[in-house]
Amino acid sequence: MSGLRIAILCPTPEYEEDWSHIQADYTQLLGANAVFIDWTKADDFSSFDLVTPLLAWGYPRDCQRWFGLLDQLEAENVPVRNPVSILRWNSDKAYLAELDAAGIPSVPTILCPLLDRVALEDARKTFNVETLIVKPPISGGADGTFRLNPSDIVPESVAGQRMMIQPYLPNIAEEGEYSLFYFAGVFSHSILKRPAKGDFRVQEQYGGREEGIIAPQGALMLAQRALAATAEITKTGTLPYARVDILRDGDGVFRLMELELIEPSLFLRFAPDAGAAFAQALVSSV
Fold it and tell me: Partner of 99 for a Cys bridge, out of 66, 72, 77, 104, CB 3.0 to 4.6 A?
């Protein structure tokens, strides 16, 4: 690995979330030849053996540039982990409908082309719930995500936008959200994330917290099924890295929340090997 030059796409300098601790992890695992490049400035990959978007946080804020970058990487046949076809497919959470059609239970979702009060009222009737979650189909870090009660107005920042509407599942606060991590198709570790009191977002920047846990068998089975279905739908092989986010609903059914195949936080401090399997999976096919 010592001679391998790896371009890790990372956030712009203006990005508000701290990623320095993850940068330190990747530098330690991948060596000094891992170079961190602002993903919005990346244009010449000729000197690299491998490109990975592992830290391309903020790409949903500039979708045109993001998809243009994927087109460039594909056109230039640049070695990318995960593959460009997976990155493009995973960028829009409309993929959840494909997985649902393949028999993977996910959080019930309506993909709304134009968010307004009528769409919210219809969703409440469809889901038979009072409280809803709305989020952009292309998003990350809970950007543009809102919990809406019947008395809440449509947030101005997302009104009239293409949005996902889901029922709010109280178990996100009562039990938490499971994240399961796979490197080269092999299970590595799992964590449980919980939101701060009174919140519904599990991300650290909103006060969320996480702990290493032994994943429930039902979550493990669902994660493996979801990854197998993804391989079948996308016609891709085993992925170097994958994070599967899962929630248990009020009836005890494990449901897929998201597949994180682009720039997931991998929480390697909870991995039994501190990330060695991840590093090996990333570079093994170069």
Answer: 104
- Positions of the chain with pLDDT lower than 70, given as ranges: 1-2, 142, 206-207, 285-286
* Residue 216 and residue 189 share a domain: yes
Distances (CA, A) of 179 to 38, 78, 140, 156, 286: 27, 30, 15, 31, 27
Per-residue pLDDT at 52: 98
Q: What is the largest distance, in Å, between two alpha-carbon atoms of the chain?
A: 59
Prediction pTM value = 0.94
Q: How far apart are CA 135 and CA 142, in angstroms?
A: 8
The span from the CA of 207 to the CA of 169, in Å, is 19
Residue 128's domain spans which residues?
Answer: 110-168
Give the pairing type, strands 186-194 and 177-183. Answer: antiparallel
Q: Are 247 and 169 in contact (CB under 8 A)?
A: yes
Residue 195 has what pLDDT?
82
Range 172-175 contact pairs with CB under 8 angstroms and sequence separation of 24 or more: 172/200, 172/202, 172/247, 173/199, 173/200, 175/248
For residues 136 and 162, what is the distance between their CA atoms, to the nearest angstrom? Answer: 7
Same domain? For 99 and 219 the reply is yes
Assess contact for 192 and 169: CB atoms under 8 A.
no
Region of 277 (left: φ > 0; alpha: ψ -120 to 50; beta: rest) is alpha
Q: Are residues 218 and 147 both part of a single domain? A: no
Structure tokens at 145: 């995500």
Residues 100 and 130 in one domain: no
CA dihedral 233, 237, 241, 246 (to 10 degrees): 30
Whole-number pLDDT of residue 121 = 97
The confidence score (pLDDT) of residue 174 equals: 87
Question: For position 143, what pLDDT does the model report?
Answer: 76
